[in-house]
TrEMBL record:
It comes from the Eukaryota. SUPFAM superfamilies: PLP-dependent transferases. GO terms for biological process: L-glutamate catabolic process. The modification N6-(pyridoxal phosphate)lysine is found at K278. Its EC number is 4.1.1.15. Belongs to the group II decarboxylase family. Pfam families: Pyridoxal_deC. InterPro entries: Glutamate_decarboxylase, PyrdxlP-dep_de-COase, PyrdxlP-dep_Trfase, PyrdxlP-dep_Trfase_major. The lineage of its organism: Eukaryota, Viridiplantae, Streptophyta, Embryophyta, Tracheophyta. Keywords: Calmodulin-binding, Decarboxylase, Lyase, Pyridoxal phosphate. Its cofactor is pyridoxal 5'-phosphate. This is Glutamate decarboxylase. The keyword Lyase applies. It comes from Manihot esculenta (Cassava).
Length: 499
């Protein structure tokens, strides 16, 4: 494509400017704002060209986040892209749509609100912000109670599984709450409710259960947690509540396991977060947090401002944000309805089964994810003495697939898995093609002439030099453990990339 600029005089320098090359002859601005302007077409071309090197979102199987919406909704998004959500007086309809979304989600999660009663909740940028808000509400409620009882209130803690998403670690660090994690073990990769309840004490502001563990998609047993915690509260006189992090499972369970009690049907569940941009089927970033009742959200956390028109209550970490995602969420709710969401999720489940079946057929993998859970397949290599899941992940990139490999947190670090998230836009034919590519990668890596893949060999060499070990002959199992340990060090920071 030839860039034709809007500069009036078609001087030679503009006439011969193809692919914005005239502007990228000097380095692309990276540190300082450029002194001079450039034509809009050139700016577009420069940026568009660089962006071509990003991965293809539709093939990004690392993420739960929505990558496809209907064109009608894309139109709505574009039309509202310039509306600041916080200007509630100026955009009252947008505010009304967010309130309707909160009501619908609260009803979906069985909040004890009447059919035409308003529920308590707020739209956020995602589940992370929602979790910060829910966590703050628990912390403040606990502090108020402790103050009233004349007891110390400076050492709050929260109990979770070691499988929590990084946003819980952020909450703990940013808002000075100790994170007490229940360790996992080989073959059991979610929070054990028995151990969680053993860990609570008078300073526990809440126990957070996950509906759809990020790592394996498995639903934690919130019902058992509720039972055990109720008993503990009765015995001790404490009043420890439950938060459910339903970031991905909140828009899965209601449609495919409606009889599973994980939500406000359980009395100790006081708040729930869900990501609208995951199985809520909206582009990033929208999330939601809903509270069981008004008294579960301390009034002093809500700010009231009036300089934009009327009195506006706000309880979010950021002030301004776009309206588009809220509008898109409302579109999905009324466009799909319960029936539509059910069909989409059932389809995802079916494609998950196809993928799982194909992987099992190779005889080469252990499936780590469970049948009841978020539609994803997490799987490990039965034999990783020759190459690892990290090698596989890298090789699958060749076909365009982005499939993360990672190790499970403590105490199951020795398990390394690949995870494929099945979203609405991951069709049956893509699932079949992926299986085919995985078989191809297996075949190619099996036929490698060396004992281990190059990557594993490099890792081993580095292991030996970094640890100053003498080269001693190790068993295949020991070798694999070392390689996994090394990979863990390499990818530790990357766990945050799994979302
Ligand atoms: C269980 C869980 N909680 C919280 C989050 C954070 O969600 P968000 O990306 O919407 O902030 C994720 C992201 O994957 C998640 O899986």
């Amino acid at each position: 494509m030839v860039i034709t600029t809007t500069i009036a005089a078609d001087s030679d320098e503009f006439l011969y400017c193809t692919f914005a090359s005239r502007y990228v002859r000097s380095p692309v601005p990276r540190f300082k704002m450029p002194e001079k302007s450039m034509p809009k077409e050139a700016a577009y071309q420069v940026i568009n060209d660089e962006l071509m090197l990003d991965g293809n979102p539709r093939l990004n199987l690392a993420s739960f986040v929505t990558t496809w919406m209907e064109p009608e909704c894309n139109d709505l998004i574009l039309a509202s892209i310039n509306k600041n959500y916080v200007d509630m007086d100026e955009y009252p309809v947008t505010t009304e749509l967010q309130n309707r979304c909160v009501n619908m989600i609260a009803h979906l999660f069985h909040a004890p609100v009447g059919d035409d009663e308003t529920a308590v909740g707020v739209g956020t940028v995602g589940s992370s912000e929602a979790i910060m808000l829910a966590g703050l509400a628990f912390k403040r409620k606990w502090q108020n109670k402790r103050k009233a009882e004349g007891k110390p209130y400076d050492k709050p803690n929260i109990v979770t599984g070691a499988n929590v998403q990084v946003c819980w670690e952020k909450f703990a660090r940013y808002f000075e709450v100790e994170l007490k994690e229940v360790k996992l073990k080989e073959g059991y990769y979610v929070m054990d409710p028995v151990k969680a309840v053993e860990m609570v004490d008078e300073n526990t502001i809440c126990v957070a259960a996950i509906l759809g563990s990020t790592l394996t998609g498995e639903f934690e047993d919130v019902k058992l947690l509720n039972e055990l915690l109720t008993k503990k509260n009765e015995e001790t006189g404490w009043d420890i509540p439950i938060h459910v992090d339903a970031a991905s499972g909140g828009f899965v369970a209601p449609f495919v396991c409606p009889d599973l009690p994980w939500d406000f049907r359980l009395p100790l569940v006081k708040s729930i977060n869900v990501s609208g941009h995951k199985y809520g089927l909206v582009y990033p970033g929208v999330g939601w947090v809903v509270w069981r009742a008004k008294e579960d959200l301390p009034e002093e956390l809500i700010f009231h401002i009036n300089y934009l028109g009327s009195d506006q209550p706000t309880f979010t970490l950021n002030f301004s944000k776009g309206s588009s995602q809220i509008i898109a969420q409302y579109y999905q709710f009324i466009r799909l309805g319960f029936e539509g969401y059910k069909k989409v999720i059932e389809n995802c489940m079916e494609n998950t089964r196809v993928l799982k079946g194909g992987l099992e057929k190779t005889g080469r993998f252990d499936i780590v994810s469970k049948d009841v859970g978020v539609p994803l397949v997490a799987f490990s290599l039965k034999d990783s003495s020759k190459y690892s899941v990290f090698d596989m992940s890298e090789n699958l990139r060749r076909f365009g697939w982005i499939i993360p490999a990672y190790t499970i947190p403590a105490d199951a670090e020795q398990i390394a898995v690949l995870r494929v998230v099945v979203r609405e836009d991951f069709s049956r034919s893509l699932a079949e093609r992926l299986i085919w590519h995985i078989e191809q990668v297996l075949e190619e890596m099996d036929s490698l002439p060396i004992q281990m893949s190059t990557k594993a060999a490099t890792v081993k060499k580095q292991l030996e030099s970094t640890e100053g070990q003498k080269v001693v002959k190790k068993s295949e199992k020991e070798m694999q453990e070392e390689i996994t340990r090394y990979w863990r060090r390499l990818v530790d920071g990357k766990r945050i990339g799994v979302c």
